[in-house]
Design brief:
Blueprint (H helix, E strand, L loop, with lengths): L20 H11 L3 H8 L5 E5 L10 E3 L2 E7 L9 H4 L3 E3 L7 H8 L7 E4 L6 H9 L5 E5 L3 H14 L4 E4 L13 E7 L12 H6 L2 H21 E11 L8 H8 L4 E2 L11 E3 L6 E4 L9 E7 L17 H4 L8 E6 L2 E6 L3 H10 L7 E7 L2 E4 L1 H4 L10 E5 L1 H8 L4 E6 L2 E6 L2 E8 L1 E6 L22
Helix pairs in contact: 4-5
């Protein structure tokens, strides 16, 4: 599968055929007689799927995704924007095939130990929040995204998900040269030519050409080279794309094998319809829409030779007592103050976070728990959604759906004798802060998170109970 000459750039308003001619050649080589069934599947509507947040349960009846315990298929695609549960982080709207990450993490053997993990290409956060849910609660996850705009979306999704022990960075992968052998688990969901998204993303289809495949291959090689240097001996690297191109998939894994990597097998159920690939002497897992109920996807996992060495724990602190009183475990968190925001992580990761601050760029060293307003600390929006918050710390009130939507639009809520800081929730799941002002609660839902579109006339979501 060598490089091919680039076609002329297409008009982005014309997505072109579902399967471009150059791609047909590759697919014929990969799936042969199955191509007619593949092409038929490409003309069908993609399934809608979500991944549930086990920390924020709610009643739901939906079809299960077999390779992900918390994955669910929906019969229709509702207007998620107008479901308050979506904003509480109760679920994440995610493509089903990509949830196969769960099987890789389970096969890595790292589920039951506290590890330092890196999601190198993290935005918008689907696999990041999934990975954080799969790791032990005491693990620390570094979620990296170089693009400022995409990193803003990543922050919102991580903070709404509500897990602890996540730091966010904005480093170029080349900066990782300063973190050699640091991470026990690395996820590289690499930028790719996007063929697996063609039936749901017209823009991806319009931009595709063979030259794009070649350019992505170069970028992927560079990212993987840096990731390999940062992987600890005995650690696992998970590589994924949403393309079918062998030069972006198995050929990239081959370069790691040539550096000493060991391919790791992931157990499969034959009924899942996932293809186990052995191209170029590798082990990879391919998803095709005529075989699995999802989009195109590829995943492979390798191990770096050696033995894992667990690090020493950092020391506990007792500073910022007024903020600690808001937390479910006041002694567990170590705080770092940065630009008038107080970030918290488990104290055991304090030394690691200090090292990361000197090695990577634009680091947010934990989950924001408080922000300085004048001379006083106020709870940060992320804390309302976090497992760190004690349910006894603030007055809470549960909103009906209409009131919750008004809150998410940034409107004030009526009240009698409201004072101090309050907490609002929906169906028992915490959502955000309000500030008492006599006969109303002023809204403290972040401006950039607010709903700005018109609500559909039909009910947006009707979860079965």
């Amino acid at each position: 599968m060598g490089s091919r000459k680039s076609s002329s750039r297409k008009n982005p308003t014309d997505p072109g055929p579902l399967v471009p001619l150059d791609l047909r050649t590759t697919l014929f080589e990969l799936i042969g007689d199955e191509f007619p069934a593949f092409e038929k599947a490409m003309g069908q509507d993609p399934p809608t799927s979500i991944r549930l947040n086990a920390m924020k349960p709610f009643a739901l009846e939906a079809g299960s995704i077999p390779w992900c315990n918390t994955g669910r298929y929906l019969d229709t695609r509702p207007a998620f924007t107008f479901d308050p549960l979506f904003h509480t982080g109760a679920y994440y709207v995610q493509e089903a095939s990509s949830m196969f990450l769960e099987q890789a993490v389970r096969a890595s053997g790292l589920l039951d130990i506290d590890v330092l993990a890196l999601d190198l290409c993290a935005a918008p956060g689907g696999k990041t929040t999934h990975l954080r849910s799969l790791l032990s609660p005491g693990s620390l996850l570094v979620a990296n995204e170089t693009d400022d705009h995409r990193r803003s979306a990543l922050k919102e999704n991580i903070w709404k998900w509500g897990a602890k022990n996540v730091v966010i960075s904005g480093s170029d992968p080349r900066d990782l040269v300063r973190t050699p052998n640091a991470f026990e688990l690395i996820l590289v969901d690499a930028p790719c030519s996007g063929e697996g998204m063609f039936r749901k993303d017209r823009f991806a289809r319009s931009q595709w050409n063979p030259g794009l495949v070649d350019r992505c291959t170069v970028v992927q090689q560079s990212i993987l080279a840096q990731a390999w240097r940062s992987l600890a001996p005995g650690g696992s690297l998970i590589y994924s794309t949403c393309t079918w191109e062998p030069q972006e998939n198995e050929a990239q894994i081959r370069t790691l094998i040539d550096k000493g990597a060991e391919c790791m097998d992931i157990p499969l159920d034959q009924g899942w319809g996932i293809e186990r690939s052995s191209l170029f002497g590798t082990i990879g897992y391919r998803f095709y829409p005529h075989c699995t109920n999802g989009e195109g996807f590829f995943l492979s996992m390798v191990r770096k030779p050696g033995e894992l060495v667990l690090r020493e724990e950092g020391s506990r602190q007792n500073d910022h007592e007024e903020v600690r009183n808001w937390l479910i475990d006041p002694t567990e968190q170590c705080f770092t103050e940065q630009e008038n925001i107080l970030y918290g992580i488990d104290a055991k990761w304090r030394n690691v976070t200090i090292d990361l601050q000197t090695a990577v760029r634009k680091l947010l060293p934990g989950i924001p728990v408080a922000q300085l307003k004048g001379n006083a600390w106020q709870p940060h929006p992320a804390l309302a959604l976090s497992v760190l918050l004690s349910p006894k710390a603030f007055q809470a009130m549960d909103l009906e759906r209409d009131a919750a939507i008004r809150y998410l639009r940034g409107e004030a809520l009526s009240a009698q004798g409201a004072s101090d800081v309050g907490l609002v929730s929906f169906q028992g799941l915490r959502m955000g802060w309000v500030q008492g002002a006599g006969n109303r609660w002023n809204n403290r839902w972040p401006t950039t998170w607010r709903i700005r579109t018109q609500q559909p006339k039909a009910p947006p979501v009707s979860w079965a109970s």
